Amino acid sequence: MENTWLIGQDDVARMLHIVGRDALMRRMISALDKGFTELGQGVRSESPMRTGFTRTGGVPGVIETMPHREPGLGVTVKTVAYSPWNITAHRLPTILGTIARIDDDTGRLIALTDGVLLTAVRTGAASAVATSRLAHPGSRTVGLIGTGCQAVTQLHGLSQVLDIGTVLVHDIDPEHERGFARRVDFLGLDVRSARPEEILAEADVLCTATSVPVGAGPVVPDGAHRPHLHINSIGADEMGKTELPAGLLRRALVCVDHRGQALREGECQQLTEAEIGPSLAQVCARPEEVAGFRERLTVFDSTGVASEDHLALDVIMELATELELGTKVPLEGRPEDLLDPYSLAGPTPAHG
């Protein structure tokens, strides 16, 4: 009997301790760059749009499912919840999730792991891939609007593809902003607080990673900026929620990770389909077509796609195999008589 592979928090913590944050992020960046390139070449399949439920009745946020299938290899399904009140109300991360790998031939559950770290790291890695392809190669000043959990891995990912000199940050929560330098001190970077308009004007690369409510954006003004500014906008997770001004978007080459999702719940909600540029997969597969755009304004509208989770889970499973981490458990029901669901192996159940 084949068991399900559980990769728990202790396993992931051990993984981080052994290989280190940089090695994990570099593996993730490499996997996503290769995956997006293969998608642009037609080697991989595109993920369907995520679907789920928007909470009503006073509790904001969404609970969604994100499936991806590689025929003959496996299906990855992530359940993910965005709950902006979690930190203050429940002492939980804003984004929670669980990721499962299912055998494509049998439907058997192969592996199950937590999605908190995986989601944060793969989102930072996706921005790093987009930045490496679209940003000016001499970019040294990074700006961050929003300094929560996602901002840590955004900056970490960028540090692997840029020679960063200065980091400018702003958050509407002063405690989040003050604590950010401590959370990223492992990077050894100069982190300074600044107003949004200063960040826009001085940054070579800007990341917006906020929990702005639906209809309350933008979080950055439409003002003066460097001609070659590149922006990674990663806050998209609800219809009606946007972080960037429409005027700025219309002046930019807008690159998306998933066109359908971007139009439904990304920054591209503010644009027509004709105003949207290439996908990240197209940029990775044909970089020569966008080489000239490194000198002008570019935006990566990152809505997060299940193919990224599929690739990220590959990385986690490969590391867990190398380090012999995780626990194999008989999670699925396996009746002795395959035509009798009550004939489960094990102790004789009580009557009733």
Automatic annotation (TrEMBL):
It comes from the Bacteria. Pfam families: OCD_Mu_crystall. Signal peptide: none annotated. Residues 332-352 are annotated as: Disordered. This is Ornithine cyclodeaminase family protein. It comes from Streptomyces pyxinae.
